[in-house]
Design goal:
Layout lengths: L7 H29 L5 H22 L1 H10 L8 H7 L11 H12 L3 H4 E2 L7 E2 L3 E8 L4 E7 L3 H22 L8 H15 L2 H14 L6 E2 L12 E5 L4 E2 L3 H6 L4 H19 L1 E3 L7 E3 L5 E3 L5 E3 L2 H16 L2 H10 L12 H12 L9 H14 L6 H20 L5 H16 L2 H9 L2 E2 L2 E2 L1 H11 L7 H12 L5 H12 L6 H12 L6 H12 L5 H16 L4 H16 L2
Parallel strand pairs: 5-10
Antiparallel strand pairs: 1-3, 2-3, 3-4, 4-6, 7-9, 8-11, 9-10, 12-13
Helix pairs in contact: 1-2, 1-7, 2-3, 2-4, 7-8, 11-16, 11-17, 12-13, 12-18, 13-14, 14-15, 17-18, 17-19, 17-20, 22-25
Length: about 575
């Protein structure tokens, strides 16, 4: 926690800061009351609220770094503020004038224990960027490597300690003497903000985050992360590799590099989904200033001070949510939201259902008629604010990230639609490349009550094919290799039981699905037949062959011929379509 033992001087600073915040709060409350009195004129009321939101953003900047971060945190909380304020605070720029370079040099020497001249060559007189937490210099190590040196503002810890103490003092007064905020857990929100801020200003943790992110994408092409130089870093100084690139939204520069913007934004969406669905660890400050593009078209991610983690149970629940989205099951999606913490116990979820139904209908609209992700979240945001539903902190950051990513996408490609890119890739990721726990959960959900859910499987394949770059042959090859590997033993067992144990299995439908798949020119039929045949004749498949033989014998002796007749028809069809 960012707290220090208060002395008389600090208490005077805390009280003075508290009065400043109170003055802003009183002016805000009065202006909000005036805006509400215009309720009979919706247009005037909305204009007044937008002006008030802009004023609040300006006050956050005027109050300094702590309140810039408070405003940015509030921009993710659709449960705490009306949408007009959320949208305005989302534009809050984390830029302030730089502090002096002599002070920065002195601070580096105090932190690293050596003169700047012994660490770096020709340390510059001006930073290349400055923000509320620190500023960045471009220079070189004595060993020749080009680096970026991020230096934290020397007075930052003291300033945060005073501001957070003032906010806690004010929160205590509000909770004790008024019910203006109702059941809003203001102290808990401040605690969470304090923890996140503490993590963000520890540059050693940022270096850890960058290394973890790089490791997650070691085998994923088109992603770059600067190398961290630990020997030249501390808690408040971070030295990293300087990577050359252009801003992700700089269209003229992208065209000069012969980089296709629509393909680039599609890649960015895929990178983000991998973080959420596979890694459970994601960059939580995804704005254009933190993403660059190099000459090869790779995305360069920088500034890992703010990251998020999704625990495995939440990831597994997201798989369920994705499948319920595929099924267009409103009740199941409401259950998912409750399980993820969006709906508190005892809260009536009924107000959410019409909006979720609208979102589902919008998702499956024909191309060109679908609303954006932001447009789809607007009615949800309104309901969350009006009914005091809660957005878990981790998901508030995810929502902000997705909206930011969509904003980048629309700048690069006016025809970009997040769902058109997200749903096919999510289906492909879960069908092929997802982590074992996610994939196992996903594949188990394809078997319901001992039967394979063909409707769900066919819908997933249809959604995946929305992506023009989707190749069923790639999916099938990866999927078959995994299915026949030791890791796929559990699924093989489940599917075997589903097929052998289902007296009404529709072999004609299996044949039709196979025909549809094998008609795809990306499938290597010869490889497929050879791979399946080798496995079927291998020792690994012997237990399954024995059980299949026993099931066949049992059914034939009992006169249950029909289902196996359908199977032989399916096999005859397969023989006709493979080489």
């Amino acid at each position: 926690m960012l707290r220090a033992a208060p002395d008389a001087t600090r208490w005077r600073r805390i009280l003075r800061r508290t009065l400043q915040v109170v003055w802003v709060a009183v002016r805000f409350a009065w202006a909000r009351r005036q805006a509400r009195q215009l309720a009979e004129d919706p247009a005037a009321s909305q204009n007044a609220e937008r002006r008030l939101a802009a004023w609040l953003r300006e006050q956050c900047v005027a109050l300094g770094p702590t309140f810039i971060k408070v405003g940015q945190a509030l921009s993710t909380r659709v449960d705490l503020l009306p949408l007009s304020f959320i949208e305005e605070l989302a534009h809050l720029q984390d830029r302030v004038p730089p502090f002096s370079t002599p002070l920065a040099r002195r601070f580096i020497e105090e932190e690293l224990g050596q003169p700047v001249g012994q660490l770096f060559v020709d340390f510059p007189s001006e930073p290349i960027a400055a923000a509320s937490l620190g500023q960045v210099y471009q220079t070189r190590l004595r060993t020749g490597e080009e680096v970026a040196v991020k230096v934290q503002r020397p007075d930052l810890l003291e300033r945060f300690a005073v501001d957070l103490a003032a906010l806690r003092l004010l929160a205590g007064w509000v909770a004790r003497y008024t019910d203006a905020l109702g059941s809003l857990p203001l102290v808990e929100i401040l605690d969470e903000f304090d923890r996140n801020l503490h993590a963000e200003i520890d540059y050693r943790r940022e270096a850890d985050n960058a290394d973890r992110f790089r490791a997650n994408f070691a085998r994923f092409p088109g992603v770059a992360v600067p190398k961290m130089y630990r020997a030249y870093s501390s808690r408040r100084v971070l030295t990293m590799e300087f990577m050359h690139g252009v801003r992700v939204t700089d269209l003229p520069a992208l065209h000069r590099l012969a980089i296709d913007p629509p393909r680039l934004v599609k890649h960015a969406v895929h990178v983000n989904l991998k973080q959420l669905l596979e890694d459970g660890f994601y960059h939580a400050d995804l704005h254009p200033g933190n993403i660059m593009v190099d000459q090869a078209g790779s995305l360069i991610f920088i500034d890992f001070g703010l990251v998020g983690e999704l625990p495995r149970p939440m990831q597994l629940r997201l798989v369920d949510t994705f499948l319920h989205l595929v099924d267009q099951d409103v009740d199941a999606l409401v259950g998912d939201m409750a399980a993820l913490g969006f709906i508190e116990p005892g809260k009536d979820p009924a107000p959410l259902k019409p909006t979720i139904r609208w979102i589902l209908d919008a998702t499956y609209q024909p191309l060109g008629h679908r609303p954006t992700f932001r447009e789809m979240t607007e009615p949800l945001a309104d309901i969350f604010y009006r009914y005091r539903l809660r957005v878990p902190v981790s998901f508030s950051m995810i929502i902000r990230t997705l909206i930011s990513l969509e904003g980048i996408g629309l700048q690069l490609d006016p025809h970009f639609h997040a769902l058109d890119v997200s749903i096919p890739f999510a289906a492909k990721l879960l069908l092929t490349e997802g982590g074992k726990a996610l994939r196992d959960r996903f594949l188990r959900e394809l078997v319901r009550d001992g039967r394979l859910d063909w409707d769900r499987l066919e819908e997933l394949l249809r959604l995946a094919r929305r992506d023009p770059d989707f190749r069923i042959g790639e999916v099938l090859q990866v999927g078959v290799d995994w299915f026949l590997s030791p890791d796929g033993a559990g699924l093989r067992e489940t599917l075997f039981e589903a097929v052998v144990g289902d007296p009404d299995i529709d072999w004609e439908r299996i044949a039709a699905l196979g025909e549809n798949l094998l008609a795809d020119p990306s499938i290597d039929r010869e490889w497929l037949v050879r791979r399946l045949t080798c496995w079927l004749l291998s020792p690994d498949s012997q237990p399954m062959r024995q059980r299949l033989t026993a099931a066949l014998a049992s059914d034939l002796l009992a006169g249950r011929w029909a289902r196996w007749h359908g199977a032989t028809r399916c096999l005859r069809w397969m023989r006709s379509v493979v080489p």
